[in-house]
Predict the 3D structure of the following.
Amino acid sequence: MLPPQPEMLRRLVATSSVSSPDARFDQSNRDVVELIAEWAAELGFVVRIEAVPGVEGKVNLIATLGEGVDGFVLSGHTDTVPYNAERWTDDPLELTERDGKLYGLGTADMKGFFAAALHASARFEPGQLRRPVTLLGTADEESTMAGARALAEKGENLGRYAIIGEPTNLAPIRRHKGVFYVRVTVGGKAGHASNPALGVNAIEGLQRVLVALQAWRDGLEGRYRDDDFEVAAPTLNFGRVAGGDSPNRICDECTLDIDMRLLPGMVADEVLVELRDQVTTALDGGPWSFDVRPTGNYAAFSGPADADFRSTVETLCGCSAKTALFGTEAPYLAQLGLETLVLGAGDIRVAHQPDEYVTIAEIERATDLYADLIRRYCTDTT
Ligand SMILES: [Zn+2]
């Protein structure tokens, strides 16, 4: 017997699984995967825990109930973002219930999903299933998407249809933008501030780059547009500038970190070539050196191709599929040939923040929706 959903979520939240590019916060997700695996095994799932190549301590869960091909996949990430415990009303790792809401780190994004997916699966006997249900639990979605990338790389056929249970307030998401990070480094030469001839100021080089990139951004907004999205144009944000150490020294190196949100159909490599050309032209004839390199690339998503899947999910949810401005693992599942939609309990606006919560009512509704989809796609009854 599975524990009731709040008890499951209590144990999932208490099993911390932070992922972060900052090694001071990064943790293994193995304990939380083992916990989910234990419950899945109790339901008759055949469970595999696979190490993510090249990432110490990180694992993916692949659990399958029933046999056959063309099955249905329920997918979620097992990690959470880091947290500031002092900014929470209660301990973020201790599930707290108030007014029908379950508060805790990862309740909405997205440990609540596993409680919903497991309870939905529990409504079926393996013998009832004509096609399999596969539960995926991935590593490092919040940092590098290494878990989903590893699955895509391996290329295993996991089924035909997939739902990713990210928090969407139970409205299906069929498209989202991509996220592309680029770092521009401008090199100069240090020297005493009293004599500019002694050095090359990297900040002054970066200033030219900023002006050029702003003009380029305006052009991009004119060239690309997709009115499906709340923000219809691709965006470019100057997120961080760092350089120099003292007013009396000529700055010898300056870096700029850029966040770009690309529309489906835009190719990051092509955007990078354009961006590099802009930097080259801006610094042309000057004394600076420079480097332009991508520091993160999370693909945009546009799916599913299968109109029947989309309309089935829309009918069950009672609303049409929408677009989102946040990234997910959907492009990696799509690479595996899975017709994918994003649909889960909880509100993305409370994710990644103190006092994150999910309502019990939405977890229960998600459970019913997932069970309906399993019935539709894995059994002969409709
Ligand atoms: Zn998430």
